[in-house]
Amino acid sequence: MEFKAYLAEKIAGALREAFDASVDGIPGFLETPHNPEMGDFAFPCFRLSKALRMAPPAIAGKLSERIAPDPVIERVECVGGYLNFFLHKTGYAQSIVERVLEQGERYGSSDEGQGRVICIDYSSINIAKRFHIGHLSTTMIGNALYKIYEHLGYKCVGINHLGDWGTQFGKMIAAYRKWGSPEQVEQGGVNALTELYVRFHKEAETDPALEDEGRLWFKKIEDGDPEALRIFNKFKEITLKDAQRVYDMLGVQFDSYAGESFYNDKMQPVIDELREKGLLKESQGAYVVDLEDEGMPPCLILKKDGATPSATRDLAAAFYRKKTYDFYKDLYVVAYQQDLHFRQWFKVVEKMGYDWAKDLEHVAFGMVSYEGRALSTREGYVVYLDELLTRAVEKAREIIEEKSPNLADKDKVARQVGIGAVVFFDLFNNRIKDIDFRWERVLNFDGETGPYVQYTHARCCSVLAKAGELSAAPDYAALDNAQAQEVVRSLERFPELVREACQRNEPSLLTRFTVELASNFNRYYYENRILTEDAAASAARVNLTAATASCLRTALGLIGVEAPEKM
Ligand code: ARG
Predict the structure, then answer these.
(1) Cβ-contact 134, 525 below 8 angstroms
(2) Count of Cβ atoms closer than 10 Å to residue 353 Cβ
(3) How far apart are CA 424 and CA 113, in angstroms?
(4) Which protein residue's CA is at the shortest distance from atom 6 of ligand 1?
(5) Which of 107, 264, 275, 320 counts the most CB atoms within 10 A of its CB?
(6) Which atom of ligand 1 lies closest to the CA of 126?
(7) 555, 453 contact by CB (below 8 A)
(8) In this predicted structure, what is the pLDDT of residue 378?
């Protein structure tokens, strides 16, 4: 049963009787109070006070007189303008637990997206740079949003908008031709590419002719010279091969790798259109779109030397995506430092007269530091993601060795726990907050961590294994106690949280939800025996345990964390 729909109908009936009024959107007004003393659902009457021209407490009073207890509603109370509904505990628990079990991994899903397309630009790594921790958040937030939107019936297109354009690639080709070899880059991978680049800069200090060579090779890439493209594509292949190892560890995939260079031949029409619409303005030899009226610096479209900055590529990419996918939303999961960049070119799309400019959204996130120190390539303080993940798996393995030496498949579980811990930590706080990565917090089995939630899930699974087949029909009256009701209330909140996570592009709501559900279950578990002589009561408690396991698994799945059955 959908409780909100049920209660909304009762409220609508009371409104008709008491005020001869009808109001839209009542189910959406119903809240689930955090404090159980405020009931299972609360209806804020101040939402109606303007339309009814009456103070909220008076409205609550009049409505409550007209809502009688029934098999679902135990009682209604008026508190400060709220109408608080208390449901019959047994029916409430039964209905929610059974719904979770029946829907399994589809719990919290819906078809409200109606197949509308969401483009998600995430990870978007740069060629010839090794995957480091600075790209973890974009990768995992994007991955989680992908899963969350799909859960709600949208169709997602995951786009790795590769940074594969820029003068540095000309320099790298020059360096490669001088000092590199196919074997060296094949074996050394992306590190070998970085070395070439570093060497180029060092030698260019004493040999300025090198810079010219770099420029020449960049020009050749631009002109589509076969040799230049062959080498450049090799660099790309090597970078992507290295990155793929990381993506495999994290379980992340993409539908498209169309990056900056993909738009080389797609920018001219955009520039032409800007000119035709009178938006392009010359400024010291360069071309810009003026945004003074919007209180922003001008958006650079064409540099003095004819080169195109990233805004022009992003514009071309947005037009391409609109045409190719007809997106409902186009999300950019990119650090908040780039906020101005996105606001600028979103505004340009708006000025061009496209109403879908409103569907472009910068999903910003904070910076990551490591053990209290800001990362800096220049100072040589970098943390590579493959190394970080490998270390997490090793550490998880040590803990497992200590806690459960007899566990089967320790390697697999260590991978799930180690990597899950890193991902969970990354998605725990509001995305806009900066993150300080600290090992002691990431892998703490007792804190608000991935391992803690995974451990609770495994605990549920082991209770279920012990319980075996149910031998009696469940008697849900057994769940009429405060701790069990807290678990039920958490389960009930999940579908709403998935929707909210989607609306706000905020996966952390689900991360935090898993901690809430897990700790509510643990509190229940410590104070109640699940398997007792009473088979019907045991069955109800087993079902609550199964529903918890299932919902934890689903929620973890949505944020990209695996849920081992044994730990
Ligand atoms: N490659 C860029 C970086 O590493 C991010 C690109 C984001 N996507 C975009 N369409 N601008 O900072």
Answers:
(1) no
(2) 10
(3) 26
(4) 124
(5) 107
(6) 1
(7) no
(8) 79
